[in-house]
Structures are given as structure tokens and as C-alpha cells.
Amino acid sequence: MRYFQVMAKYESFTRASEELRITQPALSKSMAKLENELGAQLFERNGNRTVLSWVGKQFLHHCNQALLCVNNGLREIQDNCGLESGSVRISVSENIFIKHVIFDFLSDFPNASLSCQLQSTEQMQEALEYGIIDFAVSSAPVPGEDIIWQTLYNDALTVLMSVKHPLAKKQKIYLEELAHERFVLGNLGYGMNSYINELCEKAGFKPDIRYEGYDPDLAGMLIHIDKSVILTPRSITAGVKAAKIHSPGTIIIPIADEIPKEVIGIAAKQGHFQSKASLEFYERIKAFFSSQI
After folding, report:
1. Which of 49, 76, 103 is the last residue of a domain?
2. pTM for the full predicted model
3. Which end of the chain, N or C, is less packed with Cβ atoms under 10 Å?
4. Do 250 and 184 lie in a common domain?
């Protein structure tokens, strides 16, 4: 059934066998055996492609439910050992900072284990449907049957700068006031840099970018060299500060322009078993974002 689930996911013997780490002939033999046992054709040939048949789509739904039920049973039995040695499996959007929550959780429960993956919304939906993860922390609602989405936080864009910067004493800053500043872009997630360029252009200028890269530590250091500025979501600066890796001598100032806030939420599959460790981590994630409201 697991082989069939992966084969249905890719509709490709090559890709499915690679994920399952078995040979294509072995996978083909397994699918033929399954079809023989069911007395039905699960896959059809469409030119050079292998596609799920109508019967295969019906069986996939029941297969997913059965494997999820088995997985829930296994985790429930394993959870008898308690929170201290339980496991947590989550995925997050790449522009969400929860490193400090993970660090504190694993420090408090040294025998627990945690798996955290960076995923797109579509990947999160699939992982929740298949029971691969316990929940997802996402910057967009995760759709899907029986997937429950809860909004945690409305994230606003802020300006991070040195306390010695000439604008550091302002309560709020309009983007047009940054027209002659040098920008540092780092740790903002896929597509965020182009979004910042777009915002600046709407404010009437093209940003003078001193550094651009996925390196928050370096970005934080650079703003002290020539009084550069960073545009960053408030949740990231709050997370960095909570993790106590906040660069000393910096200040966060809200942006006065009307910019749509990005919603951060948490998604879980209804009916999916949650270990004690997973529930504890779930509550810690909610508590962090609630504290920023």
C-alpha cells in the first residue's frame, strides 16, 4: 500500500522507485501483484505516461486513510513513553523564524526529537494529508480536506537599523524617507527581495542594495558599517531577539506606509494523532506568536 501511495503521487515508476529506494522492476512487480489481488487495474498507460485509473483514484483515498490510521496507532503506542522522549514533525514557510522555540523545546526535553522542513504550501498540504508531519506553520492558509487552519499573527514589515542611524529616534518611518539609504537584504524568504524592490519603487525610488543574501547574521553586522537599513518582517526580528542573537545596538521601527500584513498561521489534519511532545510544541508556537500581538 505504501508503494502504491508513492506511485500514485508521482505517476512515474522512475521517481517512485527513487523515493522508495527499490528497483523499478521490483516496484512494477509489486503493483502488478496488488492489481491481481484487487482484481482491478490501478494504473493506465497514456502514451508514454502512467496515470491513475478511475479505480486507482478510489483506492488511493482508502489507502491514504488506512495508512494514516496505522501510523496514528504506531505513534499512539510509542507515545506511552511520554513527552520526554516523544517526536515532533513539522514544516514551516522559509520566511518564518522559530529557531528559538525549537532550541528551548529540545533544551527542556533532551530525549525528544524534532524534524523541521522548509516547504511550500502545496508540499505542506500533501505532507498533512499523508500524515508525514504533525502540523505546519505557514505564511499562507493550507487548503485540503479536514485540514484545520488557525491564524496566529498578522505580520508587519519593519525597519531594522543601528541606534546610531540618523533616523533611529523616529517612532515610525515612511518608505520614501529611506530613498537615499543603503539596504541590506537577508533572511527574508523566497520572493521577499523582489517584493521589497517593488515596495520601494512604489514609494518613488529604487533601493541602493549593499548586500543581498540568505545570511541574517552577516546582514545584522553590516548595518553597523555604514548605517545601512534592513526591511524585515516583525516576527523575524522578534524571533531573533528571543533567541538572544539580536545584534547589539540595533533598533526596530514600524513602517508608516499602508502595507498589507502577511498572515502567519498553523495547520493540522483533523483526526491525525498528535503525540504529547507534538501538542506541547504546538502550544509553544502559539504562545510565541500570541506574545507578539
Report:
1. 76
2. 0.68
3. C
4. yes
